[in-house]
Amino acid sequence: MVTIDRLLAKVLMKRLKTSPAIAILGPRQVGKTTLAKQLNKDFIYLDMENPRDTAKLQDSYSYLESLEKATVIIDEVQLMPELFSILRPLIDAKRTPGRFILLGSASPELVKGISETLAGRISYNELTPINLTEIIKIKDYTTHWFRGGFPDALLATSDEFSKNWIDDFIKSYVERDLAKMFGVDLAPTLLRNFWNMLAHSNGNLFNAELFSRSLGVSAPTVTRYLDFLEGGYLIRRLQPWFVNAKKRLVKSPKTYIRDTGILHGLLNIPSYEDLFGHPIIGSSWEGYVIEQIYQLKNQHTDLFFYRTQAGAECDLVLVKGITPVACIEIKLSNSPVISKGFINCTEDLEPKFKYVITPQSDTYKTTNDVVVTNLRNFLEEFLPKI
Fold it and tell me: Where is each AAA domain found (predicted)?
């Protein structure tokens, strides 16, 4: 069995030594449980989807108090949000580092009562699907791009098995998981159709009214479903950068399916070769690059895109505070032509760094001081310096 060392493990080990509780958040099946059990061999494991474990928590305070000398891992904790108000006095009574490891598949902001209850007592950490830099010695970028970063899909013995796992994953989320995670009623057919539409418009500006007309529901309902997909770590809303008031700028977000394996599964693309005959390939590569950068960026760096009403566009802007520090154009060609629109954007934003990222090109600088490089080299050599 292939073992992948997750970059987040080192961060979590440090935080376990200082924080009484840490939360590992991310989509289902991304490896949260496996990682948590590797962090501390002396643990008590409770799964909130297991009736036997939930039965132990009928008197939650007394039971958890009795386990004060062990690390307690609570899986799918968002299914029992009332636990958070119980954990607060337990932690205040004994702030032993590494006392609780909480695993969740839903953003705390969307689960009532979670985000504010343990303020100052918990360290939140996102475990994303496997990053290119974590897998490069085992799989090349083409397999990673096509299959995505979920361990079971990425490490499957064939594309067929990988696709079958992704199809089951999508079906499970549509029919059961998403509604259960947030404790709401969601219409499976509507959710599936909406998710498919998002896949077909991957990387485009989001227009709730357009989706609502196509789906036959209100715009607020569309936005609500988008919130839940984003809160389940499945969708990314990339916001526009519009601090510059001198230009007429686009102010609608773009949406991306965060994992390209899920994207290709929703679009029923059976192989890497078939991806190259599909019109989604450009936005698939764009979303893939953005997600890899997000996973490895400095925590104080935010991601945006920039587009003027005149049509000038920068695929990705890395911002610290209110200062754009890097403009990035993402190209599928290994012999890219630097667009005039991108140069116009860099003149507007005046970033310190300008990059064009490709799949496999060599690294070189153009006459406009734009560095052209491949994705792996950007992630390993340039991103840490931004």
Answer: 20-135
